[in-house]
Specification:
Oligomer: single chain
Strand order of the largest sheet: 2-1-3-4
Distance between the termini: 83 Å
Bound molecules: zinc ion
Helix content: 40-55%
Strand content: 5-15%
Number of strands: 8
Order of helices and strands: HEHEHEHEHHEHEHEHEH
Shape: globular
């Protein structure tokens, strides 16, 4: 006679086995922590994948509102793509623990850490999270540099093929198409921003450094004194002085940042506040990486032209 405990175990095994059997015909379930990674996964996975993002386009990727539905989503995932470098430290680890899914365990083909292999900017000389800095391993907002995206999509294609070998050719073809399109777009974006070489910008959070580096802009100040630390009056006074001294007249903000703080600074520096979401889908017609970058480059270039 089976005990109840044994029966329970047998049922769980059967459910797991039937799930594995069904996977030969179904699409790969890919979960990305943020919409930008999800958009890239869709481009590479095409019809062979079903992609979900945990964070909303209007949510701060450092502080996502963790929900029970996220645990279910992670439990059913074949692949998890995370930004890494502690971008999701505040919310992802407990969700993963509850999801109990070996397929997306660290180090398995079903786990992709986007930051691996990226030349990280602003890596601190000493590791110190004690003062609240949310970038202890360097700056995790690296997708605004298209060359970083190239590395990440290549890794997605590799991992997808390991998890779903029968679709390997499709992933390879999609990667090739994406790469070719990215080369064309990168040249366009560089041309659009070329007249503003060395232009000075201010951002709320330290989240545009990779864009600045690739396209030769300079982030002269951030409204936050440190990543993740709210602006203080003393710090904002310093920001205003720097902006006046360096004639920086563009402030970039994201949907989840305090626009009123940016507006207060802008009033005292004759600057403009630009809404520049980094997540696809936060604004209309920015659902793909290309559409999003088109929007960002156009918005920044226009503002730099008008404040020249
Ligand atoms: Zn950050």
């Amino acid at each position: 006679m089976n005990t109840i405990a044994q029966l329970g175990l047998a049922t769980a095994t059967l459910v797991a086995l039937s799930g594995a059997g069904a996977s030969s015909s179904r699409k790969l379930t890919v979960v990305a922590t943020t919409p930008d990674l999800a958009a890239l996964a869709k481009a590479i996975g095409g019809d062979a994948v079903e992609v979900k993002a945990l964070a909303k386009p209007t949510e701060d990727p450092h502080y996502v509102d963790a929900k029970p539905s996220h645990i279910v989503t992670l439990n059913r995932a074949d692949v998890l793509i995370e930004g890494g470098a502690e971008l999701e430290l505040g919310w992802l680890p407990p969700l993963l623990e509850s999801a109990r899914n070996d397929k997306i365990a660290a180090g398995s083909p079903g786990r992709i850490v986007a930051s691996q292999g990226i030349g990280m900017l602003e890596v601190p000389a000493t590791f110190d999270r004690s003062r609240g800095d949310v970038h202890p391993f360097g700056n995790p907002h690296f997708l605004l540099d298209p060359l970083n995206v190239k590395l990440i999509v290549a890794r997605m294609a590799e991992h997808f093929a390991l998890v779903d070998p029968k679709a390997a050719e499709l992933f390879k073809a999609n990667l090739k198409t994406f790469d070719a399109a990215l080369d064309v777009k990168l040249a366009e974006w560089q041309k659009q921003l070329a007249p503003y070489r060395g232009a000075k910008i201010v951002t709320y959070h330290q989240d545009f450094v990779y864009l600045a580096e690739r396209f030769n802009l300079e982030v002269v100040e951030t409204l936050e004194p440190k990543p993740g630390i709210a602006p203080s009056p003393a710090h904002l006074a310093k920001v205003i002085a720097t902006m006046k001294a360096k004639n920086a007249r563009v402030i970039l903000v994201q949907p989840y940042q305090n626009r009123r703080t940016a507006e207060t600074v802008a009033r005292q520096t004759n600057a403009v506040v630009l809404d520049v979401p980094q997540q696809p889908g936060a604004l209309k017609n920015t659902d793909t990486y290309f559409e999003l970058m088109d929007y960002i480059v156009r918005t920044v270039a226009t503002a730099l032209q008008e404040t020249k």
